[in-house]
Amino acid sequence: MDAASPSSAPLPAAHLPLPASDAFRQLMRVAVALRNIYVFECFDRYGRLKWRETVKNIVVNEGLDDLLDKYLKGSGYTAAWYVGLVDNANWTAFAAGDTAAKINTTANPPTTNGWQECTAYDEATREALTLGSVSGQSVDNSASKASFTINATKTLKGGFIASVGTKGGTTGVLYGEVAFTSGNTRAVESGDTLNVTVTLTAASA
Questions:
Q1: Percent of the chain that is helix, strand, coil (3-state, to 5)
Q2: Which of 161, 179, 156, 150 is nearest to 88 (CA)?
């Protein structure tokens, strides 16, 4: 009996061609990881560094939806983002379901996020997030840091990014939020300057 030719030998299951629909789904299955890094630096009234903290944030569902709507759907859009501060008072947790509409500046009623905004600084609005040029799938505000002139003694839990600059405002979109490392809190007092550098990155994952 003649030996079977290589072309007639059955292919292992792992090498069988995919049906057209499965091949398309496999081609389109691309994961994008959004990694955002905040650097908080607190200086006293004499310009001396009191503390520094580097932390990574979560992008909440509202922010992810806005990204898809503005970029992939092509909705009308002019970028305007602001950095806000999170008070440690009444803080319970950050959650993917947090929204700008639920931001508050007082003790948390049941209909709000599990945190409240700290507005104890001289600036009239949340600090603008002024981003530089995008390079290597990364963009940051290092050339124009968000700078807060603290005017009261407070304990902070972290920060957030939103599309509206009004202090305590509940309109617009909440993009992301961040807590200090391992449950830490950080103290600030009147006369301190708190600088926040935000680096936004995207990578195929």
A1: 15, 35, 45
A2: 156
The whole-angstrom separation of Cα 182 and Cα 169 is 28
CA gap 114, 108 in Å, rounded: 7
Which pair of structure tokens corresponds to residue 96? 């993917």
Tokens standing for residue 67: 């990204």
At 21, give phi and psi (nearest 5°): -65, -40
Interatomic CA distance for residues 133 and 112, integer angstroms? 35
Determine how many CB atoms are found less than 10 A away from the CB of residue 153: 11
What is the reported pTM?
A: 0.82
What the block records as the tokens of 195 is 């600088």
CB 190 within 8 A of CB 150: yes
Q: Please give the chain's pLDDT, 205 residues, in tens.
A: 444 444 455 545 444 454 555 544 444 445 678 889 999 999 999 999 999 999 998 899 999 898 888 877 777 777 799 999 999 998 999 999 999 999 988 766 656 899 999 999 999 999 999 999 999 999 999 999 999 999 999 999 999 999 999 999 999 999 999 999 877 899 999 999 999 999 999 888 6
Provide the phi-psi class of 97: left if phi over 0, else alpha when psi is between -120 and 50, else beta. alpha
For residues 57 and 96, the answer to whether their CB atoms sit within 8 Å is: no
Distance CA 174, CA 197 (A): 18
